[in-house]
Write a structure and sequence with these properties.
43% of the residues lie in helices and 13% in strands. The N terminus is likely disordered. A hairpin with a 4-residue loop joins strand 12 and strand 13. It is of the alpha+beta class. A nine-stranded antiparallel β-sheet has the order 1-2-3-14-10-17-8-7-4. The longest helix is centred in the first third of the chain and has 48 residues. Helix 4 runs antiparallel to helix 7 and helix 11 packs antiparallel against helix 12. The chain contains 17 helices and 17 strands.
Amino acid sequence: MKLLVLAWILPLTCAEMFTALVDLENVVYTESSMLDTLDHYIEEQEQNLQNLRETSEQLRGLNREALQDPESFLAHPVHAFITVKRFLWEWVLIESRVRGNQITSNYLTNMSQYQNYFPGKEDMTGAAAALLRLQDTYKLQAKDIADGNIQGVTKYQPTMNAEDVFEVGRAAYNANDHYHSRLWLEESLRRLQQEESEAETVDRSDREIDIPTILDYLAFATYQQGDMEKALEITKELLAIDPNHTRGKNNKDFFEYHLEEAKKSRGDTGDIPGDSEDAPETEIDIIPDNVPADMDESDPYMRYTERQMYEALCRGDSNVVKNLTDAKSSRILRCSYQHYGVPSLFLQPAKEEIVYPDPLLIYYRDILDDAEVDYIKKTATPKLKRATIQNSVTGDLEFADYRISKSAWLKSDYDEIVHRVRQRVGAYTRLDMQTAEDLQVVNYGIGGHYEPHFDFARNRTAYSNGIGNRIATMIFYLSDIEAGGATVFPRCGARIFPSKGDAAFWYNLFRNGEGNLRTRHAACPVLSGSKWVANIWIHEMGQEFRRKCGLHSRE
């Protein structure tokens, strides 16, 4: 602003300069100072433009790599997280630089048209939560994720810098998840120290974080984890760098006071009352509700919580995946071509695989061709909305954090391909499709998953339109997944890996109409890939003579 102010003042204060040359001589000196100011301003603008040019080149390189194959690029969870973060940090920084520029520019006006397409803070929180979900489910280290070293993922290996890692830790911190927050903040601190040690000069002007900021967060997260001595140690490290840090000084006094009080309560012996090396270790087994009546006590499901079983199946732990090599299973499991007496299947029979005996899980190979898959995805894409779940008590549709995906519903009334797919489902299952729901198409998000759930409603009044409960499920897999994304059944130890064009089918209800608890299933978090599926749920109404009642309750 200095240059503009001088230019405005001169006409007001120098109106009589022509009457004495000595005054005009002073103007020459003033002009020299003004030129110095102008040169400084030009240097600032050139430096600002150089910084913007360097940032643009960096972002252009990332964007160019992403544009080569956007689906595969964003399929890696680290790439997806960094992309979301870029819109909430780098692009915001660019805007602030442009706003601080005195030169009139149409940049902000031109960029405003893209604002509606920017990810928001909720997207950043969701992307960070996805990384934490993948970390827990697949037992990954924060360092490995940040280095892009994810087992089973081979195409890309993106790395996260200290700021990227800090954002994950801060998201966990804001969610009061201090266990994960501490892990990621420690990794962020290590990376920042390494980055600064390797840099010849450290320019902190563009950094959102510095070492004191990380230590400040880390001290509190460590305290919340119950390690007050370590929290005090971190706080002292913070104050050694910034002695005037107000919160650091207050926290140091707080930690020292309570540690001293705890020391007094122990009689200054260092032993915590009631803590003994001879005390027996106890382990509490949590048995889930609604355990199937015939569940064998040796079954892993009786020893693990549903969450443990679900995550272990997603990882493929050998102690929970059901062993189907026994003679009884061998008699049931088979691969065959089937036409089911349906004329349309005589020339192109179903490729049927029975992959699990109880519940009976049937896997159909190549039930959809590539053209049908592409059409379904293309038609559903503009209709995608955040997926809902049906409340098992009220029957209402609602959002839930345990289902991260978007879905769309495709009707068959005026769509030849969707109608053809429904007819094929009827031919394969021999069930009446009159009361089947529309085709639901789902695309999972970053680390997308759907935690264990039933497809059938436990409240019999959930479907009040007379079509009955969901008797069966057909799920189509519309994409290949590089890693993760399996469909697992925690109550029986079964799992199915998605393969493009294939489908899985099972009955949710016994023949007597009661729900089969073994059909409780889940969609594992996607480690790498863009997972697309489509579902058709078939209802009881119309199946009275197609799937008749049995002689036993568990038929």
